Structures
1.
Amino acid sequence: MKSAMEHQARLIFYPAINRASSSFIPSAKALFDLVEAQYVDGLLVWYAGIIEDIDMDSAGQFFDRYASLPVVTIGSQRKGSHDLSIDNYHGSRALIDHLVDVHGCRHIAIIRGPIGHPDADERYRGYADALQSQGLPINPDYIGQALFASNSGAAMSAAITRQWLRNAGRKPDAIVASSDNMALAAIRAIQDHGLHVPDDIAVVGFDDADISLSGIPSVTTIRQPFHEMGYQATRMLLALLGGQSLPEQSVVPAQLLVRESCGCTAKSMVLASLGSGAAHPKPGPGAFDSQQEAIAGGLASIAHHLAIPAEKIENLAKRLQSDLQSGTSHLFLTALKQYLMETPELHIDAMAWQDVISVLRRQILAKPNGEIGLLGETLFHQARVLITEAAHRAYIRHRLKTEHHIEDLHRTAESLITSFGQPLLIETLCRQLPELGFPGFCLSLYDIPEQPTVSSHLIMARHDNQDIDLPPGGLPFPTGQLIPAALPFSQQVTPLVVEPLYFREQQLGILVLEVGPIEGAIYENLRAQISSALRGSQLLQQAQSYTAQLERRVTERTEELTQAVNQLQTEVAERQQAQEALAQERNLLRTLVDSIPDIIYVKDAEGRFILKNETGAHVMGAASAGEVIGKTDFDYYPRELAERFHADDQQVIRSGQPLINREEPGIGPEGKERWILTTKVPLHDSQGKIIGLVGVGRDITERKQVEEELALHRDHLEDLVEQRTAELKAANEQLLVLSNMKDEFVSNVSHELRTPISSITLRHYLAKHHPDQLDEHLDAIKRETDRLARTIEDLLQLSRLDQRRTEFHPVPINLNELVRQYIADRMPIANSKQLTLNFQEEPEISLVLADMGLLGQMLSILLTNAINYTPVGGQVSVKTHTRQGTAKRWVGISISDTGPGIPPDEQSQLFARFFRGSAGRQSGVPGTGLGLAIAREIVKQHAGTMEVESDGVPGHGATFKVWLPSEGGREA
């Protein structure tokens, strides 16, 4: 990035995957397809990342797409391309030679990288050639292979090491790992086996990753200068773009870093080992010049590592010499402090600066008659303290910045979690991304997620801390272009990071960010959060579309059902008229029977058919109506079904009561189950004796299928034939709930008000036309009027509670005293029902600040419900409680009964307005379904909570608990 900005070139980074991730996510591969040759001038590729993410075969196809572009790779060693690689071969040889020459190792094992990987192959070749040049054999049993991937590579390395340690033969005395991650895993496996590194087995690694210094012992390794390689590779690509010619292969020398895991003393300890009191042999001729050259070389190497000019280190040496000669201490420490302040804000390499001090100390001691003295020792100690303090402050700054980024990410995540809907998501991102340090960004969605490279549309853009206005529906552009050419910053040179947006296998779009924070994890976390929010918005849109379709379908089904019911009523009336005419017009029976498409039959008292129309014969599977005469249901139906038909027939014949419009299953001629609407009436002879029955059946299978389909969207329809008026009303109300869920409250109010008004109107009509029953009708009108008044009062109370218009007069209240009063008032009712009404008091209970009237109303509702729903001989228990919460103390009331309980599937609707559970409907207990809603609103206005507990088992009852915040006082 630094090199690109120096040459006014835009760097676009395609990460495709979070390198900290344990496994590659295939959905991220789509990002590689967006790197199109027509939109970039040149390509810089980290080859190891490509083959790890899309495999080596696909890597070849990947590079073929850019044959027309200048391409520079890092670590590929591909023929025909310009590649910059670390000298893996000589780095590996340096490790082997050090183990053999310095530590005398003879049995050296290797955990190599995957075969075919350029770096892995070169490191293994260096290992093999080094053993051969040392005269040592290559033992196939000491060759293992692992992946470079973080987690899987470590696991494979540990398993290989454990296998070597379990072998009965000679164990290796050294292990060469192809990465520091593999080396640390091998060290842990050796230690778990009860051995020590390096005393029993030496271990060395490769790469000089940060983790190489994290373990005990620290890992001897080969340094790969990743930052320098990135800078140099970028300059190579810029040179190619400028028309310069370059060699195909460029090699960066490898550097051996000797540490503890091979058995050596760390370099920093060696540099600091020479003390002022040590005895030194007298140097020979030229020794002083040789020592000074070595020291100067060490300082130059450290200066290069610290990325500061070597003249600054030389200046430190001069100021140190000046302070020692003058007996002062301000020049050297002042210059050191200034250089430390000039280092990157969040990183100070304390070990390298300590090495500077050690080398400067050696420089003084290496001079003829070199003495440090008390001032010198003080200067060196103060310098080391100064370095330590500067590094500690840099660490604190880094930690605070990291914590700040984490807090920003948490805030962004919290905002995105609830940002469902594209407009709200865009608003959230425009607010949160600048807070994370991103000055500009673009969010685009694929037009065809299955073909992401075709085209996209930009839905959000920001540049120079200003939102960019976009046309409705977004700005279309070819996806590989990343940013529409019409945007002002599409031609800027600001570095960009491209993140793929996907949710599992679902491709969504791309996020293009101007480089902000340097922590890579922020980009991956942001990608995941935005992807989840985008997917949530898509699901919300799908749900809204489905809801609209469902509402339209419910409306259509409602109209169809209404027409079907009307038609059914007409058909039933016609059939009843036909049955009456049948008894009077016996001579027209055959004509009438054969003209009706329904099933018509007549049976004698023994169940034998004496008449059957052709339709009925066809349904039974008979060839003709004549074939059926004299036979019974047992000749055509399964025994179980025939026995049921026969039992119904005998019931009609014995009782003389008709069976009207009963829906029952049957079997059609093809053996499939059919639904029949059956009517059976007794058949009388001229003396009025029942001699059989007449039956009519209609195939309602298609209607039942329609009803079953509608049952997916409502609870059920009750007895459509026997209680036609009640069923139609229930069906209309249920369908009204499904099609107008947003207007549920208004619908319920209309129903609750309309029902008593309708009843009053009916009773008024009956009173006028039946004055002999006037008192009965007036009593009914009074009851309905009272019910209407209660409903209206409850509605007004709920309205006042909703709008906070209820007069609220809080006073300190002792719940024990209040509960005792209300229990005493309801004791006569409990005694009349033979109920046991218990009250268990909390001895010392805190006072609550509450409105006496509202709290009493809530308590009255709960007690009345408990008494009403508890059967004779049951028990109602009331208890008061206290508990200490995190920030306040709570006082509670629990009311338990032994009634029918509340089924679990009804408990979520229990506090809904006008909801009455199955227990209320079945028991006949009067009520409007508003009491619990009012009680909970009263509790909420007192900043309390209401809970219900019930397993739904009859007799186990239910428990309602109310918790109110304590006023803070104690009972006197």
2.
Amino acid sequence: MLRRLVGCLIALLTPLLDATGAQAAQYCMPDPKTPGIDVSKWQGQVDWAAVKASGVVFAYARATNGTKILDEWFDANWAGMKAVGLYRGAYQFFRPGQDAVAQANLMLARMGPLGPGDLPPMIDVEETDGQPPAVVADKVAQWIQVVEAATGKKPLVYTGTWFWDPYVGSDAFASYPLWEAWYCTGCCPNLPKAWSSMLFWQYSSKGAVPGIGGNVDLNWFGGTATALDGYTFGPLVTTPVIDLLATTSAKDFRPEGPSAGVADVFEGDTVTVTLTVRNAHGAKPTLDHVRLGYWLEGTWLEPTSYAIETDWPAKDGVTFVPSDAESAPDNPAKGALPPSGELNLHALAAGETKRVRLLLHATQYSLGAVEHPDVRAWIRHIGDYYGEQVGWDDAVEVNKAGKLLRASVQHDVFGKNHWEWNGASQETEGFTASPGVTAFVVDPLAHALALTLAGPDPFIVSPELAVDAATIQGLEGRVRHGTAAVAGRLYFVTDVEPQWNEEKAIGYLIPGDGQWHDLTIDLGAHPRWKGKVTQLRLDPVPDAGGEHRLDYLRLVPNVKLTSGDADGDGALVGPDCDDAAPAVYPGAPEACNALDDDCDSQIDEGIPGCKDGCVKTGGELCGNGQDDDCNGQIDDGCAGCKPTGPEKCGNTSDENCNGQVDEGCTGCAGGSHPEDCNGKDDDCDGLVDEDFSLGKTCTDGKGACLAYGQIACGVDGAPHCGAVPGPPGTESCNGQDDDCDGETDEDFGLGKTCTLMTAGCETKGKTVCAADGKGSSCNAPPPVVGPESCNGVDDDCDGQTDEDFSAGKACETGEGKCVAKGYLACNGLGTSFCKAPLPKGETERCDGADNDCDGEVDEGFTVGEPCEVTNNDCVRLGTFTCDPTGLGVVCKAKHNAEDVCGSPPPPDPTGTDASGSGGTTGDLSSGSVDVSGSVVESEDLGGVVVLVAPEATEGCAPGRRAPPWHLSWLVLGALVLRARRRAPAC
């Protein structure tokens, strides 16, 4: 809507005064209030769904501006408001200079028939088109008569006190609902004198509402949405409109197979399920309590507590506070919620949302035990609006909603450190397989993970873990293999050693007899099993090897022994006489070491000269660190260097007395040598290249050239990133570093202030990337094109400024002798005026003219004020008028019913009248009193005109009666303010 700036200035600067100087009536719109907006073509395309979601309840759209301008967005707005369920109305910007009946008929034609949810039409009265107040009021009356007759309802009158009182001034429309335009917040607007209240209030023209670009008018309706419904051409909604939604805080972190889209939760964790019950904005409130039924399927999720919350009074679906329904006596204790039952939510107002938040504890592995355990909820009762749905599967006998109000949310419960594989064929519980596994599914009959090993290096990898190696020391499960014994390997990685390698592997052996065997792996026995373990990998066989099954796997606190081949030598536990020594197994070569290397119950057999693990080679040789004569002593009888054993690396000592230090130490450079990146244990701490984060992800290059790789040792003994940066390209304007120089879009001057010229208007913005990325553009918004105002701005963007107001042209102001010449200029209110110097006038006279050229006429004279004329027993009332001389005023009085006459007072021996006051004489014998024969004069006593009577012939004043008791208060008030000159006494 167009707005007069004067309305804003009056609202901000001063209380509005009526024509007599009295302050206009203020009206404070009480709560509750209902929010709404009004739009026209200036808002462009509107996303009405977003508008409604923001909490707006009603909206008005402009249909036309008079008969000559049709709002091009009206049809879209009119349909859009209806589609999203907003209360809607239409308005017309009224033009008093055009045919009022034609305007009304055009408005009705554009609206079409009105129905449920449609509000009465509104006439926007804020322009005179140069018409006087009487014509404006008459035209408004014609418009209202046509619209009211066609619709059967009183239309709304939109205006502002700042416009109505000075430019219309009619009180003939006081029975029509007022829509006041008065911009302020937290204030009480001044009302036009014709109204004592307002139904709608437009309090801002600079609102921001989702779905609308730029400013929009904000309004309040003085009442609830239910009250607003009473003004429509049929209720928008006659019943509650209830929706039920079930959501969960759990995420779908195991999306494979039928579990895709199902929320997942680990045993022992807590999940929150929210049951949201919403009554639509504009709907009827529920007449009594809403009862919500619920059921937690099975024992997988156990209720621990609950909360009932409401978004009242905000009713925004976001601002929730505890609901008093929590304390309803028929609701269970918060910490004792049974797995099924119902909750009393109390009543729901229109637009109110209540939610029940169930706190659930995951207690039992569910995948495969049930399809997906549900949390189910349904509306048990909503007064006579809804039937009685006792259980989840019950049909509602009488259902005005037209649907079953029920909702559910599904979960799968997993173990953090164990896997069961009891589900459907594709539910592999996060495990993945290498290409060497040609079939990888769950066998639903055997309840096992079924693998077909038919390629090179088949293996499976667990999902990501967070296992504390200090508390988890073992792995157990059940395994079956059907062709031959398999010597498998279990690999693991940690957060500090993320590489798969043999240094973090444990061997195990499973018989190939087609039977189920228990699998146990002692993880704690491995020296690298420490810190946080992040993933496991099972390699059943090094190459293709037939069918393999896993019934379950569990990470447990500890196990005593690793199944089968703990030392990885390929021998089963039974035949292998030492499963901790890889060199000891049936058929192994016997060595002279005092051990049964081949597991035949004999020690060192078949080795000539071997005695108690020692082979006698002859006499003792000094300096070789060996017991050459097998007498249990080394270098016995040798003088000088006394051997202490074999040579030790890194200590600069000759332990074997052979005259060499650290000979043979090719794999260990010595304890004082720093570690190099070379695949060797340089510092002899048992770790290789431990200081270089080998295998970790690294990057090289910038921008579009950035490449990822892994850290590896180079030929120079230093770690290097294996990433190979890509080639640089040509820089485009796309938010990326295309030329790989570390700068983004540096060639396009982004962020600089720019100017956009559109339709003759200029707007400012910033330089941004063009849509095609080939260059830049200015993001300055298009100008707001409006009607031209007199303000020094090109409002209509035609390249001309104030062209409709002839600014600068010569003009005249004033009348008669007060005419002054000047030029047309803008007045700050959007219109022009004649700016001219004040003419130099004369002394003001009482003659109906502006003699001193100050814009006022006869100021200082009491023209029009009440007065009285007395003569003996008669007092007559009249008003002051200008004396023909122009120097003062005279009292003109006519005979009327209020004349008071009686006997003349007795003579006053002192020569004065009874009151001691002088009087004004006049001939009271006729129907009118002519005091023109009296001598009157005026003198200025601070702006009060005083009547002065002449001296009588005898030198004394005639008698004068006091005013009668029944004079009106208006006259008495004037007389009190009037000072009278006393005539001289005789």
3.
Amino acid sequence: MPTPGELARAGVLDTRSALAALSQLPEDVAHAAAAALGRAADPDAALAGLAALCAAHAQFAAQAADARFTAALMAVLGASPALTDHLMRHPKDAALLHTAGEQEWDPAQVRGQLRDAVRGEASRSASVAKMRAGYRRWLIGIVARDVVVGQPIHVTWRQLSDLADAALAAALDIACAQHPADSGAGKAPAVVALGKCGAQELNYVSDVDVVFVVGDDAGHCDIEHATRIAGTLMEICSEASVEGELWTVDANLRPEGRRGALVRTLSSFTDYYQRWAQPWEFQALLKARVVCGDTVVGEQFVQQTRPFVWTAGRNPGYIAQARHLRQRAETEIDGDAAREIKLGPGGLRDVEFSVQLLQLVHGCDDESLRVPGTLQGLTALAAGGYIGRDDAAALAETYTFLRAIEHRLQLRRLQRQHTLPTAPDDLRWLGRGLGFEGDPAQQLLDRWRSVAVDARRRHEKLFYRPLLDVYAGLEPGAARLSATAARERYEALGFADPDAATRHVQALAQGVSRRAVIQRTLLPVILLWLSQSPQPDAGLLAFRRISEALGESHWYLRTLRDESAAAERLITVLGSSRWLTELLMRSPEAVAMLADDEQLQPRASAALHEEFTSAAGRHDDPAQAALSIRALRRRELLRIGVADLLGLLDVDAVGRALSDVMAATIDSTLRCAVAAWEVEQGRTFPARLSVIGLGRLGGAELGYGSDADVVFVHEPAGVDEPMATAAVLAAIADVRAWLAAPSPEPVIDIDADLRPEGRNGPLVRTLESYAAYFEQWSASWEAQAMLRARHIAGDEGLGARWESMIASVRWPASGIDDAGVREIRRIKARVESERLPRGVDPAAHLKLGPGGLSDVEWTAQLLQLRNAGCDARLRGTSTLAVLREAVTAGLITEADERALTGAWRACTNLRNRLVLLTGVASDLFPSDVSNLRALAHVMRAQSPQELREEHLRLRRRARAVMERVFYGRA
């Protein structure tokens, strides 16, 4: 006899009762039972059940002396005390446990025995009792295979479905015997299973979803007769009896639900599905399978409804409705949703709905997805490239684990149950039944929570994938076209060279590799997106080139398939921007940043300086260091350009971001040049050097096509000026050469022509030289050129002192005098008349034309020259900031500021978008129809005409303000 401690270690909770039960058993039986306790999910219930059976039936004691038999019996009784009642009534059925799992499962044998059992019985009640007893007998065999042998759960599903099929066939026989055909009645209806039974994935206790069908030759009497049979069949399976009920036969998925006719003809079903059915009703038919009855009619029903199923995913509103149904199911949960393994977040329905939605959308074109089972569906979706293999594997593991929980919950009392218990003892029993040891209750909860969180995350990724909505909108068959049909489709989609498009698609999708499989999934949607872009042909070629460069990268196609926002963004870039496409071709790994808005936000200036300098420091060769800096600049230009094209940045933010990148590039390259000089000369660099940004760089308003306007200032450090100047000139020459050298990276033209005396003046001066020049020689236009000057690179202290020195020049204390104002106005008028290219419509020139950039900037600068000396608010380098402060100072009205800034932003944005679109800097509003249409697309205008009219309107308003404020004209 085991001790209380040994019993407790075996999992017994009530050791006193256990000892009492063991004492009532023969010694050999007690020994065998004690040895088997550890394998029982509920040792207390198993031992109590064994004691009761031995007490009631003497033959049990003889059988229980067999240790193998007792171990199997204890495992079954510990998993399902409900089966104890059946064995009390039918002790002979326990004999199945002697050969648990050894006999081959034969569905035909199961069906034959159940049907044979009900033949010849005098009454319906006797037939039902025989059928149910036989059902329980076979159920014990399945339970033994499950909890004793540990067969895979999908095998258990199949066997339970086979057993349900047999029970339905036997019930149909009983119903037909109760309602024999008379002279006016025909055959029994076909019984078609849906849901889990249809997919052969049945639980121990599930509703069995069915529809009843009769042939089109059935008359009114036939249908009435078939309806009586169907109703009786449903009663036979669900009504209470001494042998216990089986499960509910649910026919509510029939047309019109509970209000609809229980039995319909084939043509009635077809008519309903064609005219009235909701998309979700076709989803219910996905798993349809004939079980019994008129199998010919049943097969006709399945075949006739298949076209409805495999076009449902393309029905307008289907995806939205499917998502709504899933959300509604969660809101209608009774009790604690967090413990719901079926309907709750991360539960079985998350997996099933995800699989079915993907099947119904993609299965319209891909027949390999037309499988009924959830695990089969996951396998097919992964094989077809519609989901990742890791997602498929994780969801399959989740699904089997959750179904295992559901099975154990239902098996205990043979009742429907899909909520985790709260009682510690119940959790402990459930955890033990699932194989957890140590602290089974806590281990079960930990695993469940982990699984639920992971399943929910994957469900949301797949179920709410935007790519599905686009795919669902494709024309039927668009994903699988012949070569001729494909060429016609590409031409219809707007590809100028459909033959080239065909070649690109074939190159991407041919073969049996996983890359080709996923490309075949993506291409129909990608082609649709490209057709909506201004440059579809160039975009498709670029997509092919990038895919060939990155196709073997494990993340690339996975990102495009699973992060559909990234896929659409990539296609937007490739089909809309030659400039960004070229950058992306040189850095295809940057595709990864498209999936995340955060990744597309400009980097902070300090972070850029640190990264650029650190990257350069990893190279001994300064020229290679400079190339690494330019490569980082390329990545940042791509980041900014994509964010701009996608509307994530406004034009002001683009200017600031581009200026920060330029400053970091020049600063880190200058550091390389200084370090290279020191290595070559073997001594410390003999000067402090600062780079001052002018123009748009100084104002932090750079565009994609802007040069870097700068001046250089230096200060000798421990050597005479000529020696310092020579070192500084050498460093500057290296910087300019490295940044402008031919390479795959975008070149940078450092333009120092705005320095004192222009090209004829020295390239670099000392601080004192600048001060002397401006004091003696500075003209009004030179002071104007210094208005946007600010330190951007090199020695910060020297740059700050240079800015302090220039303050009195650009912001004269008493303001620019009248002669200076006249000179500024004269130069502006001369620029307007002489610098506009011949033959160009002035209204088309974004910089020099009326209301263009020059008008706005000169207006702001004249306000500064006249007023900044006495009003510090105007001492900024940004055009837009100066205009805002001019309103505060009362120099212009808010309406004036809106007119000027509106035109400046519009012209700057147009210049930027022209570079993005064509890859070439331009100051001209396009006149070519195709370019204008493309520009309107990337500017998100309704039409080219709307874009032109809005642009001209803004510029007319700005010119009117400029005439009054700058020229002083009324």
